[in-house]
Amino acid sequence: MGRFRDALAREGLTAIAEVKRRSPSAGELRPDADPAELAAAFERAGAAAVSILVDERFGGAPADLAAARSASDVPLLAKGFFSGRAELEELRSLGADAVLLLLRDLDDSQAHDLMTTARELGLDALVEAHDAGELARAVELGADPIGINARDLSTFRIDRRAQLELVEAAPRDRVVIAESAIAARAHGAEAELAGADAVLVGSTLMRAPDPAAKLEELLARPLVKVCGLTREEDVAAAAEAGADLAGFVLARETPRRSPAVLPVPDTMLSVAVHVGEITDDGADLVQLYARENGHRSREGVLLRGGREVARVVDRSWHEADPGHLERASSAEGRIVLAGGLSPENVAEAIERVRPWAVDASSSLETEPGVKDHDRIRAYVEAARC
Q1: Which of 23, 256, 307, 324 is least crowded, fewest Cβ atoms below 10 Å from its Cβ?
Q2: 45 and 182 housed in the same domain
């Protein structure tokens, strides 16, 4: 395996930041995009690799690859429609570390030959699938890494749900990349929880005023959860403020109990909060606590499809808990930090704990179950700084 694949296999969710001037589905994105300037900026922003469109249909050219290589040391993915050895040799000479191979356009014999050629040239081959049949072919061919594209390149339709199902189905011993449809922090988190090692982000970055800052926002900051939501107008306020997770308490022992998991916009994930038992609620995620002496336990778990994907470190129930942040900072894995967070202290808590997500509820209320929209905005802003 080469350095492109190894860079994506680092702990936590990694990202391939893409440079493309136009898209067949979206038209002009950033016609004046400078691949050297952007590659350098993406490297500073934490990209594990940079993808360069070298096809004229995307406003790209092979020279863009050489420009990016002159300004950046991160692994470079040459993205286009390749079918022969001479193309791969040229891309390697211009600084590519990996090439994209589309199973949609290649039969198994062609894909195998190109993968072999890439390996001989010292290139990784990112083999892309967009349906179950292509994923099965990629696995059989021994592809690693494997890209799962949410966009059907024949129709340009996006199906994130189908993409996540394929990500879940991919072998865990391969590096899996979720491609397309990553426009919000919650999208990347959902792909990560489904099993993706990395995301490839292009159009969202190219549309952003500051592409590197947008990459940092999508990749690095903690997810922000507003919990105890009971009203649609409060969900809307949380979404407008930029929260990523909307929490709906369905446990019986709370005045913040929601009548149901309310609809959330595409930029957010819904979280059903249960104590003791889980009901079929249709949420994207479940936050589950054990029941102890009539109350929820101090620690819980975050579940996706019944599988634990994070730990929730909360404060003791209605008690002083001076060791709360220390306990959270020493915990391993993805940590959701909850309990006592507010606009006034969330930034300090993030600095001390470096959690995967933060969770606030009562400090954002005017009364149980009714949110103060100014407090929501202040909390989200403080958590995202």
Answers
A1: 307
A2: yes
